[in-house]
Amino acid sequence: MKFKIQHKDTKSNARSGVITTDHGEIKTPIFMPVGTLGSVKGIHQKELKEDTKAQIILGNTYHLYLRPGMETMEMAGGLHKFMNWNKPILTDSGGFQVYSLADNRKLSEKGATFQSHIDGSKHNFTPENVVDIQRTIGADIMMAFDECTPYPCDYEYAKNSLDLTHSWLERGINHFRNTEAKYEHSQAYFPIVQGSVYKDLRAKSAEKIASYGAEGNAIGGLSVGEPVEDMYEMLEIVNNILPTDKPRYLMGVGTPANILEGIALGTDMFDCVMPTRNGRNGMLFTKNGTINIKNLKWKNDFSLLEENGASFVDKTYSKAYLRHLIVAGERLGAQIASLHNLAFYLWLVAEARNKIESGEFSVWKNIMVKQMMQKV
Question: pTM of the entire structure?
Answer without folding.
Answer: 0.97
